[in-house]
Design goal:
mainly alpha; 4 helices; 70% helix
């Protein structure tokens, strides 16, 4: 889904910039998260929320 890809790009970019991670490390953090799994499940409709909210959920999940 195109919307999920855009959300992911924003989250990875903000992780990399905000936490001084390489893009690869930021992608690993994002793609291995429960948040990403929920985002990819269309039944959760998490993709309908703003990316900033999803980013905050991910940060809470990972303790960062």
């Amino acid at each position: 889904m195109h919307q999920i890809k855009n959300i992911g790009m924003a989250i990875v970019e903000n992780l990399a910039n905000g936490y001084k991670l390489t893009e690869s490390d930021a992608e690993d953090l994002y793609f291995t998260s429960d948040t990403y799994a929920k985002l990819s499940d269309e039944n959760t409709k998490l993709y309908e929320r703003p990316w900033e909210e999803i980013y905050e959920i991910l940060k809470q999940e990972k303790g960062i």
